[in-house]
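Appendix C reproduces, verbatim, an entry submitted by the partner laboratory led by Prof. M.T., so that reviewers can inspect both the input and the predicted structure.
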Amino acid sequence: MTLDELLNAQVKGFLDPQEARGLYLLTKEASALGPCLEIGSYCGKATLFLGQACKENGAILFSLDHHRGSEEQQPGETYYDQDLLDCRSGLIDTFPFFRKTLRDFQLEDTVVAICSPSALAACNWTTPLSLVFIDGGHSFAAAYADYSLWMRHLLPGGFLVIHDIFHSPEEGGQAPRVIYQLALASGLFEEVPGIKTLGILKRARQGEIPPVAQALWEKAGGIGQG
């Protein structure tokens, strides 16, 4: 599957073509070090680019999502899509669409689908990761949990990639930008030029979230903020 074919794929999702191309190239570099993780797979649009890059390196992509939709994808919210509503349960269910994407683009032998809340999947996780792509819930609580739970598994030389970083509230929610700033303040990452709303950081060394980063988070509103 060529990159141009992936860019023309009709898959539900929210990923700019320039961001998609950059995500593919970054994953191609990272996956030479080890497996990658996507947090927030939705119907698999970004998974195409992450997965294809991993496939070409003989690497694995873990794709994590509870598949019940994020806050803004629920009925009555901005990004609600009636196609994704399971009439039997009355709940959003993106998992059938995600599985179809993997099947249609021959990624079932590359992508390990994890249908679970992020915090639950992280409980006993031990696999080192070469790339962590955070694109899950956009509330402060969800974004901070994804960052704090998973960054510890990122290998030195690996990449932390955060989607939907907007520089003003008028453009979009600020939680992704806050966790990007937290990662920079930790001293554990080196800044890499971003691509549109993709923030990219390279893991420089091991360590936990230091007090200065925790203080920045509390100033931004803390994990109790929605």
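The longest strand covers residues 154-162. Additional entries are available on request from the coordinating office.
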